[in-house]
Amino acid sequence: MILNNSLRVFFIIKMIYKNLFIDLDDTLWDFQKNSIICLEQIYHDYNFDSFYSSFRDYYDVYLPSNHNLWDLYRQGKINREELIVERILVPIRKFGISSHKYAKEISDDYLERTTRQTHLIDGAIELLTYLKPKYNMHILSNGFTEVQYKKIENSGLTSFFDKIILSEDAGINKPHPQIFNYALDQANASRADSLMIGDSLEADIEGAYNSNINQIWFNPNGDRINGINPTYVVKTLLEIKSIL
Questions:
Q1: pLDDT tens across 158-195, in order?
Q2: Which of 28, 39, 40, 198 has the alpha carbon at shortest distance from 118?
Q3: Under a CB-based contact definition with an 8 Å cutoff, are residues 172 and 182 in contact?
């Protein structure tokens, strides 16, 4: 078989990967959908509807605050406890509620509810079924240990993965290079034969890029690329089948 130069390059790239490191939340497990379901339950069960006229009003306060807190957590500027307590308190603090214990109880309840939600990103199972015979696959996630394992198991994802590698075990969050070094160590993988797949441009893609690991950016919203050029960009998970 004779390959022209472009096909030869594509063929070589396609064959080099042995280890796939895959983010969990909003890459495979539909964090947005599952989280909204649980937050709306919390909103009603804890009578937050006495503070807000609608769940949407509450969520519009919760969401940007939660994103900001996760950014601070990834940067190591706040710890886990501050993250999980503050994301509950921010929307209700202005109504005179500031109890750390109360917020922790609600947060624990919310996190437990999320583990029972099983909505996956479209195409997740089909893609994993296609990839499983071809690659060693590993979850690489910033999520909390006791929560992520339950989500993976309850969503029927456990059997697809060789390693579950979490930031709490590594002692550092994506995008820090140290967690990628830890992941390569845990999987007995090299940079050259590894590929990171994830939805977060900062945590997954820039983190892998700065660690000299190739990447597939799952970018369903068509967000603009700032700063780096990912190895690959896809809008749907099933597009990955044409790459791997």
A1: 999 999 999 999 999 999 999 999 999 999 999 999 99
A2: 28
A3: yes
Which helix (H) or strand (E) covers residue 173, if one does? none
List of residues 6+ apart from 162 with CB closer than 8 A: 136, 137, 138, 187
Per-residue model confidence (pLDDT) at position 5: 44
For tokens 């945590």, the residue is 203
Q: How far apart are CA 164 and CA 153, in angstroms?
A: 11
Q: Give 242: exposed, middle or buried? Use CB within 10 Å, 0-12, 13-18, 19+.
A: exposed
Q: Cα torsion for 194, 143, 185, 132, to the nearest 10°?
A: -40
Tokens of 89: 């308190």
Spans of the chain, pLDDT less than 70: 1-15
* CA distances (Å), origin 228, targets 126, 137, 242: 29, 25, 22
Angle, vertex CA 225, rays to CA 141 and CA 244, nearest 5: 60
